[in-house]
Structure formats: structure tokens, C-alpha cells
Amino acid sequence: MPRLSLTAPEVATTTAAITTSLTTACANLSTATNPFSALATAYGSAAAASAGITVTALAGTDADARRAANAARATLRNAFDAVWTDPDVYAVLLAATDTPPADEEEARFRSSALALMLRLGAGLTGEHRLAAKDLQEKISAMTSQFDANLNGDTTAVEFSIAELDGVPDSLLPLLESRGDDRYAVPLKRPTLTPTLQHAKSSATRKALYRAANCQCLAENGPLVDDILAARAALATALGFDSHAHLKTSAETVRKPDAVYALMDSVAKGAKPKFEAEISALVELKATLIADGGLVADDDAEPAAVHPWDLSLLLREHKKRAFAVDDEQVKAYFEVSAVIAGVLALYEHVFGLAFERVADAPLAWHPDVAQPTHRHFFLDLYPRDGKYSHQCVVPLQPSFFDAVAGSQRLPSAVIMGNMTKPTPSAPALLRFFEVHTFVHEFGHIVHALCSRARFPLFSWAWSIVPWATGCGVEMDFLEVPSQALENWVYQPAVLARLGAHHVTGDPLPEDTVTALVAARHVAPGIRYTRQIAISAIDLIMHSGGPPFVYPPWGIAAHSVEDLVAQVYAHLGLPPPLPSTNFVASLFHFTSYSATYHSYLVSEVASADCFTLFAHNPLDQAQGSRFRELILAPGATVDATAMLAAFLARPVSVDAFFDSVGFTSSDSG
Ligand SMILES: [Zn+2]
């Protein structure tokens, strides 16, 4: 394990050393006895060596080093990518397929690496290669511009304090004060969402909704059209029917048709619940208008639910239907008890043993727990300058090091932002923090259980510069963690994670029931909206304009028109004319044609947990899960892993049961 805390000068020397090691490995590949094995070893070693850069960028304690490491990440990303876009490397690897592979895993690595290179254009020659490269560069520049426009947007919508009636006082300091009791609401999630949830005035919410759906439209609207055209041209140049075909080819779904079939089945299953929920919201709206909780000013159709009503109505609905007192629940989840409980839970069910290395040298900050065998670190608490979300970062991939002649063991870290205890007061976690920690620790166990002998098959995602997208399929990456999230809704498990921090009592039964009930608020509306975005994403990346999907009767002349037609097909309240949320959809650049991976993962993860339904602590199923789902990494297709674990193909039934949808078939 290399040192993980670097100074700014060390960032520079490490980056240069990694870049040189990769270019040297590529240049010498033609003289290697086994080019695939040589490339895998060089790539895995470079990946492991880059851990210090990633950790310093995300969590370093020195601001200069952090800045240097963040800049170095882009350089490293290009250096790792250059391996897979190099036509000379492709030619050497292709020639090496004349000799038989050592075993099944090497055979899979060979085909995965070559398929990855074909997707990136390394197999093209002459003017075809130049044309593809030109398109790749244009797409890269345009998507960066799209993101920069979005990140740099400072639009805020101004209202008088009267127009903001209903918004909690605690939100006002986050708004921009414009004097004379006037405030501007920035179109960022922490201010936009609560204002839409609380402002009583329909006119206020409608104005805000319109602004949010026009955000960056002038700059990003034309960019969306140009990016779609360039992605389509590149997909054609690479031999795919469309960008959607190219992207799904590396997912468990393999083809857009499989996604359409799933979306159709879930949309139909959700329909009765969706319609009942909309009717309930119509009634709730009338009640709120009558008692002054909602003011239908500028509302030509007060009897209908508009898109700008949804946030407020869903919040009210949740408050009325599922009363869970967050503060009361917190008292049962003291942070150190939760951490110990979650680790013990994973040890018990999966037959693992975690051992704290008490006298290991300091990692990068005193808060960070020290490594054990297959190393993991817990960097759980917020600090100035640290990564501000929650995630797991792989540090060293699992791979066979042909130079050292030994297997390198995987390691990973949780970058968390949990509530931190102080010497005088315990830290009490909100329920969602417990939920998140169980989820993130699932990624740790997934990463650490890997037995992959090729670094591409180890658990990784785009937070590290060496992730290629041809490892664990993107629509499977979250499945194990999502499946294990179900634990926090099982009384037997909750009893192991928390007790009242003063009395030691277990969480009361009725609180557990309320937490389970509050898990899915208006799932019909939630999943219908998710399907709408997935469908828009897939259809617009399948060719056109016109953007067509005949089974839904869709033929749209523009993205704006496509949004309106998909909403109409699914029965969602229509968007306002001359708006287009795609212009401010951050997934447009990072998740192109794969937004559906959320839905695909949820269906598979609900199904996986069915084998724990009778006993969430079942060790026999735990060891099967470890063996069949976690340990293979990407050495087996996820669809095959799931079929082996379930002893049948994945079905939507468990997902439907969990959210109360009706199944017309078991497709
Ligand atoms: Zn996750």
C-alpha cells in the first residue's frame, strides 16, 4: 500500500511516475511474453499507485496538496484512458489472441479489453479513426461546457416575504436577501426543494418551477441538440445502431429493448397506484385550499394537480400518513454503537472477521480508522475541504501482479460525512444516516471480497481515474448495497444496530412499523417519474429527431416535444410550454442513455433480498451471497451471478411487492 497522504510536490512526482509507467508499458507491450498479463499488471500497479492522489484530492488535510491532487486527477484520467484508445496497443493485443488464454478469467479479460477498445475507437484506422477522434473531442468539449454552464449558474428568483408565506424561517438565511423584505431563491437543491415543498402560494411555486425548468436553457438547449447529434454520429462510426445501443452493450440489459420491456412492465404495474395517489393528492389539495395551507392564486385549474404542486402535496401527504418523529428515532442510534453494530452484522452474515490495526502509522487524519488485512479505512466525519457526500473509494484493485508473482489484495475507504461525537456529547444519527452507512459498508464488503485476477474486474467506479466502465456493470454496481439496505427495515437487525443511548431500550415496535411504512411515500408517482426520465433519456439517444418510440405512440420533433409526449403517455401532469428540464439535467452528461440503471438495480436488489426474507441474518444465504454475488467482481456477467444466486432469472415480483404494485405477468 503506497502512502495515502501526499504533499503538493509529491503529487507532481507521483503523477509523472504513473504516467511514465503506463506509456512505458504500452511501448514495451509488443515484446512481452503475454501482452494481456503484462498490461494488466502495469495497469493494476498504476491504479494502486494513484490511490494517494485520489485520497489527497478528496480528503487531504493540506489545501495546496488538495488543489494539486484535484488537477492531477484529470491528468491521470487521460493517462489511463490513453491505454485503451491506443491503436498500437489494440494491434498488439489482437495479435496476441493467436495464443490460447491461460484460463477462463484471462479469456474474459481478453474479450472485455478488446470490446472496451472497440467502443472507444481504438480499432478504427485511417480517416475513420481521425473522424471518430474529432467527434470524441467535440463531445468532450461540449459536455464540459454543459456542466460548466450548470455548475456556474447563479439564477435566483426574487419574491417578497409575503409571497414566500409557508417557507420555514430556518430557510431564510440560505436565501439571498435583496432588502425591503425581499428574498431570492437560488435554483440549487438545498433552497429550491424546500421552497417548492412549503410555499403556500401557487403563483410562487409555479414561477420557481418555470425558472428551474428553464435553467441554462438558452446555453444548454442548443448544446443538448449538438451533443445528441455528435453521440449518434460517433456510435455509427463505432458500428453501433445508436448511442443507446453503445451504452447498453456494457450493461446487464445489453440492449435498449430489454430496458423498454422493463419500463413498460413497471409503468403498467405502477398505474393503479399512481392513479390512486394522484386522486388522493387532488383531494388533499382541495382540503389544503379550504384550510389555507395552499393558496391557489394564478391557478386556472385548482382542481388539478400541477407539477409545481407535487413537492408541497407529497410533503403534506407524508406528514399526514406516516408520522415518524426523527428526533425520537435518533435517540436509538448513537454513532459508535451503529458502527460497531454494522460491522458485527456483516461479519456475522458473511462469515468475515474485521480486525482493527491499532498501532498502524497515521493514514491521513487522526479521525481515520486504520487498516486491517484486506484493508479498509473509515473516514466517517466531515472536515473543511473534504469531499462533502458519502461514497466508497477503491484504493487498490484486486489483481495478480505478474512482476511480483503474487495476488494484490483489494482495499477501499468510506468517505463519509456522518454526525461526529464530541468528548462531552454522543453523536446521534438520523435514520437515513444509519441507512446510508449500511449501504456504503455494503460497497466496502463488495470491493474487499473480490478475488479478481485482472484489475478491470475489481470493484471500481468513475471516482478513481482508472475505472473503465467495463468492470462491474453500471446497472449492477449498486445492487448488492441496495439489497443489504433492506436490513434496516428488519426488527431483528435494528435490534443489533441500536438501543436507546440512555435507557438501553430497543426501538419500540410501532416506531419500526412507522419507519417501514414511511420507506415508500407515493411509489406510484415516484417510479412513474423515474420511468419518464429513463424513457426520455433512452429515446433521445436512439436516433432522431424525430425522436420516436412507436409502441408508446411517440414521434417528437424536439426534446421539449419528447418530454411532453412521454409525460402524456404516462399520465404525468404536463410540463409548462417552452421549458425543458434536460438542459439542466446533470445526468445528461454523466449518465447518458443509462438513467434506467436506477430502476434496473432496484428491481434486482429487491429480488436478491427475497432469499433473506425468512431470516435476515441467515448465514447460509450470506455465504452464498458472498460467493456468488460479491467475490466474482466482474469476472462473471451480473445476469449470470443473479441467476446463480436466485436459482432463476430476475423477476419484478419482489420489487412490485415492496412498493405495492400489481403484477399482470412476472416478466
Ligand atoms: Zn452506492
Automatic annotation (TrEMBL):
Q: Which Gene3D superfamilies match?
A: Collagenase (Catalytic Domain) (3.40.390.10), Neurolysin, domain 3 (1.10.1370.10)
Instruction: Give a yes or no for keyword Nucleus in this entry.
Output: no
Q: Which residues form the Peptidase M3A/M3B catalytic domain?
A: 196-659
Gene Ontology terms: biological process: peptide metabolic process; proteolysis
The note on the cofactor says: Binds 1 zinc ion.
- One Gene Ontology MF term: metal ion binding
Q: Which cofactors, by name?
A: Zn(2+)
Write down the InterPro entries for this protein, in alphabetical order. Answer: MetalloPept_cat_dom_sf, Neurolysin/TOP_dom2, Pept_M3A_M3B, Pept_M3A_M3B_dom
Q: Which Pfam families match?
A: Peptidase_M3
UniProt keyword terms in alphabetical order: Hydrolase, Metal-binding, Metalloprotease, Protease, Zinc
Q: Which domain of life is it from?
A: Eukaryota
Similarity comment: Belongs to the peptidase M3 family.
Question: What protein name applies here?
Answer: Thimet oligopeptidase
UniProt organism field: Thecamonas trahens ATCC 50062
